[in-house]
Write a structure and sequence with these properties.
single chain, alpha/beta, Rossmann fold, UDP-N-acetylmuramoyl-L-alanine:D-glutamate ligase, 11-stranded mixed beta sheet, 19 helices, elongated, binds ligand NPW, binds potassium ion, EC 5.1.99.6, NAD
Length: 508
C-alpha cells in the first residue's frame, strides 16, 4: 500500500476536486460522512455520550460534519471548538454554517484550561483538533487538553492523525493525544511506523474517502507499506521438475564459542525459507554441535582450533553468503573478515558482528559487492551511520548510506524498514514477542535462503522481513508474546508461506 507524503495528500485532494468537478467542501462532507458511517456501524445507536473536539482547520471541519451526522441520527453529542487560532479555514466555516442551520445543538468554544469539560471513562471522544496541517508544537493550554483527554481513560477515536503529531517531522517536546484507534484517510502515514511517533499509536485503520484513483495509481511514493498483498506478489512458485540445486546453496558464516546457537538458527532459517542446500562455516569446535543440532546442514570449519574464527576460507561456491551471527569481535576474526571480503565475489547478507566489524573498519565497506544486504538493529545502525536527532533524520542518513555503498539496509525495529534507492519498504508484520534473542539471526538466514532461491536481494529483504514477522505472528497464537523463541519463528516459517494463499484455498 502506498504511503503518501503530506504534499501528496494535499495534491490528491486537488486532483479529486478537479477530476470530479467538485468544491473542496464536498470532499470534506464525504470524508466526514464516511467517518460518521464508520462510527454508526459500530455504535448502532447505543446511548453513549460522544464528545467531539474540533480545531479550526479542515480536521476540525471534518469533526463538525461528523457531529452533524451524529446529531441528525439521534446520538447524544457535545461538540467543542478548540480555539487555538482566531483564523478558520473556509471549509471549517462552511461545515459550521451547515451544522448551525440544521440543528440547535451548537458547538461550545474552548479558549483556555477553564473551559475544559469533564470527561467520563464511558464517554466516546472524537479527536478532530489537528490533522496533517500541524506544523509546530501546539500552545501549552492545548497540550494540556491533550493530556486531559489522555488521562480520562475514555475511548478516543482520532480522525486522520492523532492531534499533536506532525506527520513529516518530530516536533520538539511533542505532546500527543493518544487515541485508542486512529481512523486515517486514504493512506497510512509514515510517522505511524516510526518508533517516536508509533509509540503513541495503539491501532489504526484506513478509511477510503474516494480520492482520485488516477492520481493514486500514478503517484510514486517514497514509502510503501508491505502487507500480505505485496508479499504475495513477490512469491516465486516452485516448478514440478525442480531439484535441490534449483533452489540454491546458502553458506552461513557464523558462530563462536558459546554462540553456536546463532549459527544453528540462521542455518535452519535458510533451510526453512526454502534454500536447496545450506552449509555452515564455523569454528572447529562448532562442528559436532552443528551436526547434531541440524542434520540437514552441511558444515565446513576453520582449520584452526580456537574459540573464534581465525580464517574464512572454503572450497565451495555458494550462491549467497550470510555472515555475522555469533561471530564475536576477536581481532583474528576481524582479520579473517577483511581477507575474506578482499577475495569474495558472492552475494552477501551481513548481520550482527559482521556489521560491527564494518563499523570499526569503514574501509571494509568499499569491499562489499553491490546490492549487499545489511540488517542492523538500531544500535548497530548507529555504529554504521552515526547518531540521529529523530526518526526522520535516521531514514535520511540510512538512505545516504545505502546510496553511497549501493547496499540494501534493513532497519530492524517494530516496523522494520528496508531502505534502497531512495525508497522505504515498511513492514507490517511482527509483534513484541519477537524481541527475543536469536530473532535477528533467523532473519539473516531467511534473507540468505531467499537470495539462494534467486529472489533478487531487494525482494529477498522485503519478502524475508515480511515472512519473518508473519511467522512470529502465527507463532504467538500458540505461545503468547512471552513464550515465543527464535527457534519457533523458524518452525512457523512454513505456516507463513501457507498463509500467503490461505484465503484463496479457504474460499474454494
Ligand atoms: N485528502 C484528505 O485526506 C482530506 C483531508 N481532510 C482533512 O483536512 C485535514 C488537514 O486540514 P488542514 O490543512 O486545514 O490542517 P489542520 O490539521 O486542520 O490544521 C489547521 C491549521 O492549524 C494551523 N496550525 C498548525 N500547527 C498549529 C499549532 N501548533 N497551533 C496553532 N495552529 C496551528 C495551520 O495553519 P497555519 O497557522 O500554519 O497557517 C493548519 O493549517 C486532514 O488532516 C483531514 O482531516 C478532509 O477534510 C478532506 C480530505
Ligand atoms: K485529529
Amino acid at each position: 500500500m502506498k504511503i503518501l507524503s503530506k504534499e501528496q495528500i494535499y495534491a490528491a485532494d486537488k486532483a479529486t476536486e478537479q477530476a470530479e468537478h467538485i468544491p473542496s467542501f464536498n470532499l470534506m462532507e464525504r470524508a466526514g460522512g464516511y467517518a460518521y458511517h464508520y462510527l454508526h456501524q459500530r455504535l448502532q445507536n447505543q446511548p453513549v455520550n460522544i464528545k467531539i473536539f474540533c480545531g479550526t482547520g479542515n480536521n476540525g471541519g471534518d469533526g463538525l460534519v461528523i457531529a452533524r451526522n451524529l446529531i441528525e441520527n439521534g446520538y447524544s453529542v457535545v461538540t467543542y471548538i478548540v480555539n487555538y487560532s482566531e483564523s478558520r479555514s473556509t471549509d471549517f466555516l462552511n461545515a459550521l454554517s451547515v451544522l448551525k442551520n440544521s440543528t440547535k445543538n451548537w458547538p461550545q468554544l474552548i479558549k483556555s484550561e477553564n473551559d475544559f469539560p469533564e470527561i467520563q471513562p464511558e464517554d466516546l471522544i472524537v479527536d478532530c483538533i489537528f490533522g496533517i496541517g500541524l506544523n509546530r508544537p501546539a500552545d501549552s493550554w492545548v497540550q494540556k487538553l491533550f493530556n486531559h483527554i489522555n488521562e480520562s481513560r475514555a475511548y478516543v477515536l482520532a480522525i486522520d492523525v492523532p492531534s499533536g503529531m506532525a506527520i513529516d517531522q518530530l516536533l520538539k517536546d511533542e505532546v500527543v493525544l493518544k487515541p485508542t484507534v486512529v481512523l486515517t484517510f486514504q493512506t497510512p502515514k509514515l510517522v505511524f511506523f516510526l518508533p517516536q511517533g508509533g509509540k503513541h499509536i495503539n491501532s489504526w485503520e484506513v478509511l477510503d474517502i474516494g480520492l482520485d484513483r488516477n492520481y493514486l495509481n500514478s503517484v510514486e511514493t517514497k514509502a510503501q507499506l508491505i502487507g500480505k498483498a505485496e508479499a504475495k506478489q513477490m512469491y516465486k512458485p516452485r516448478s514440478k521438475f525442480s531439484h535441490k540445486g534449483t533452489y540454491g546453496h546458502s553458506l552461513i558464516i557464523a558462530g563462536s564459542y558459546g554462540k553456536m546457537g546463532a549459527a544453528i538458527l540462521s542455518g535452519k532459517a535458510a533451510l526453512s525459507s526454502g534454500s536447496g542446500l545450506v552449509t555452515a562455516y564455523t569454528t572447529r569446535q562448532g562442528m559436532p554441535i552443528m551436526q547434531s543440532a541440524a542434520p540437514e546442514i552441511m558444515v565446513v570449519t576453520d582449520r584452526h582450533n580456537g574459540d573464534f574464527l581465525e580464517e574464512i576460507k572454503f572450497d565451495l561456491q555458494p550462491d549467497v553468503i550470510g555472515i555475522g551471527p555469533g561471530l564475536g569481535m576477536a581481532k583474528t576474526t576481524q582479520d579473517a573478515l577483511k581477507n575474506f571480503l578482499k577475495q569474495n565475489e558472492s552475494q552477501l547478507v551481513l548481520d550482527a558482528d559482521a556489521l560491527n566489524m564494518l563499523s570499526e573498519n569503514n574501509d571494509l565497506l568499499e569491499l562489499l559487492p553491490q546490492f549487499s544486504v545489511l540488517t542492523p538493529h538500531p544500535k548497530e545502525l548507529e555504529r554504521l551511520i552515526g547518531s540521529w536527532s529523530d526518526d526522520f533524520e535516521k531514514l535520511k542518513k540510512a538512505e545516504a548510506f545505502s546510496d553511497k555503498y549501493k547496499c540494501i539496509l534493513v532497519l530492524k525495529d517494530a516496523h522494520t524498514i528496508v531502505v534502497f534507492e531512495g525508497k522505504y519498504y515498511v513492514n507490517n508484520t511482527g509483534n513484541p514477542g519477537m524481541a527475543t534473542g536469536g530473532s535477528g539471526d533467523v532473519l539473516t538466514g531467511i534473507i540468505t535462503g531467499l537470495i539462494a532461491q534467486q529472489y533478487d536481494p531487494l525482494s529477498a529483504s522485503i519478502f524475508g522481513v515480511y515472512l519473518h514477522g508473519r511467522a512470529g505472528d502465527i507463532a504467538i497464537n500458540h505461545t503468547g508474546y512471552e513464550g515465543l523463541t527464535a527457534g519457533m519463528i523458524v518452525e512457523f516459517l512454513g505456516q507463513a508461506y501457507l498463509d500467503l494463499f490461505a484465503q484463496e484455498s479457504e474460499k474454494k
